[in-house]
Amino acid sequence: MNESSSNPDFHVLVIGAGSVGLLIAQRLKMLGIKCTVFERELYLNQRPRDWNFGVYWSQAPFSECLSEDVISNLSTALVDPFHKAGSDDHFPMFNGETGELIQKMPIPNTYRLNRSRFKALTSKGVYVEVSSMRPKQPFPFAPLNMETYMNRVAQYGKRLSTISRSSDTETVTAIFEDGSEATGNLLIGADGSRSKVREYLLGPEKAGLQPLPLLGCMALRTLPADLAIKIRKEQNGLAHVAHHPLGYCSFMSIHDVPNPEQPETWVWMLALTWSDPGTERPSGAAEIRSAWMQRSKHLAEPLRSAYLSVPKDVNISCERLSEWRTIAWDNHQGKVTLAGDAAHPMTFRKALPILLPPFHSNQAESQISDRGQGLNNGIHDAAYLCRALRLHCENGKPLQEVISAYEQELVERGRNAVISSGQNSLMVHDWEQLKKSPIYRLGIAPDRKQ
Fold first, then answer.
1. pLDDT tens sequence across 166-216
2. Quick one: which of 154, 162, 194, 333 has the fewest CB in 10 Å?
3. pLDDT at residue 358 tops 70
4. Measured distance CA(164)–CA(169) in Å, rounded
5. Residues 68, 54, 363, CA angle at the centre, nearest 5°?
6. Which of 6-20, 136-150, 261-275, 428-442 ranks highest by mean pLDDT?
7. CA angle (125, 126, 127) in 5-degree steps
8. DSSP letters along 18-41, please?
9. Which phi-psi region, left, alpha or beta, contains residue 284 (left: φ > 0; alpha: ψ -120 to 50)?
10. How many alpha carbons fall within 13 Å on the CB side of residue 226?
């Protein structure tokens, strides 16, 4: 149900139509606050790379940002709409060399969402500014006509160039590379880890990502039916992680289940990360595939078969993991702020359990909530930022006051999450450190029913 804002002229500009940007837009729509989203892609999910993510400790703010209509259709964005989440769900961790189960972490009632389908769901009913440019590639959804597609679906083509603001007015202006401009009262940078808005606020040097000595590769693919069934049975859920003594870390999850009775149609997300002290990454498909295969052959079965079976026509993406340790910025009298990965870009979002002490069996659920996981922090940002804007639009609190309060909480939480995520990522790629960790020494936590 939409609420009515007492300040109908207040206009929010959101740069970035990713998951967090669209959550903000959905919540503002519910609050009756005018919002326009701008995105550099020419059309919804233009970039072919896709992944999935789990909604863990942020389930309450996640629901807060979504209308009843979106929540009722959330199953369309689940990686497996046939899987019923429950209080006994867990996340298994294996020894990548032997296949031995090391630990299983409780993740009760978790949503695991397919990113592209979640964006498609949350873009409905949100006004996304349309570029004068026209896509050269075929439309992904076969719309009835061009204008229907352009005006009802998140079709973008708005690449931010710079931001202009005036100290003597209550407005801020986004200027785009196609020469167009948009003016509003608040500009939110939700434009990802390489945020142009963050660069504007802090300058290129202070806003730049810091590379870590870790490389990560990822691929999406189907598996033979017997192998898919075996892996699904062993992970006993939607995802699992395996750590190898050679310093590798594999993460595997269901990405799409078109038909639960045809396991050969299930799409899997396979990720592989390893320590690499250099500054470069493999370049070119052949070099990336060679690095992938070289490490996959050391994995225990059935992971070895799954990773080695990636065919040559399947793209394997590769990137150096990086982070930006959140610091405060000048919000220009509350006119410009950040959210999501733009505010706290952290390491590869693979839903790894935090392995930092202290840990014992009855702390398992609290450790889940302390995880430095990017999307869950971004969901938290979206809900808290919209609460701040509600205080301004409905209660008349000064914009600078509510935005500064939002940022004060975000900066502390975001910085802590980035640091813990980076430390955790480094540790799980160091076998000797991993063996010393409490979670490894204690083994499997007792079943909560015992």
1. 777 899 999 999 999 999 999 999 999 999 999 999 999 999 999 999 999
2. 162
3. no
4. 11
5. 110
6. 261-275
7. 120
8. SHHHHHHHHHHHHHT-EEEEE-SS
9. left
10. 2
**Residue type, position 276, single letter:** D
Partners of residue 243 on adjacent β-strands = 95, 249
pTM above threshold 0.90: no
Whole-number mean pLDDT of the chain? 85
Q: Which two tokens stand for residue 312?
A: 């040559």
Nearest CA to 399 among 166, 164, 64, 170? 170
Is-contact 91 102, C-beta < 8 A? no
447 phi and psi, to 5 degrees? -60, 135
109: left (phi > 0), else alpha (psi -120 to 50), else beta?
left
- Give the C-alpha distances (Å, rounded to integers) separating 116 from 159, 234, 277: 20, 27, 32
Q: Which residues of 82-117 are buried (b: 16+ CB within 10 A; e: fewer)?
A: ebebeeebbbbbbbbbeeebbbbbbbeebbbbbbbb
More confident: 200 or 447: 200
Residue carrying structure tokens 């949100």: 126
Is a pLDDT exceeding 90 seen at residue 156?
no
Phi first, then psi: give them for residue 397, nearest 5 degrees. -70, 145
Residue predicted with more confidence, 368 or 282: 282
Q: pLDDT (tens digit, 9 = 90+) per residue, 250-288?
A: 999 999 999 999 999 999 999 999 999 887 788 889 999
Residue 203, number of CB atoms within 10 A of its CB:
10
In whole angstroms, how far apart are CA 7 and each of 2, 99, 384?
15, 59, 19
- Cα end-to-end span (Å), the chain: 43
DSSP string covering 358-388: P--GGGHHHHHHT---HHHHHHHHHHHHHHH
Q: In angstroms, rounded to a whole number, what is the distance separating the alpha carbons of residues 25 and 20?
A: 9
CA distance 188 to 197: 8
Pairwise CA distance, residues 263 & 233, whole Å: 12
| Closest by CA position to 267, among listed 251, 256, 282 | 256
User: Alpha helix locations (H) across 138-296?
Assistant: 146-152, 196-202, 204-207, 225-235, 285-296
Residue 324 CA to residue 343 CA, distance in Å, equals: 8
Strands 267-275 and 210-222: antiparallel
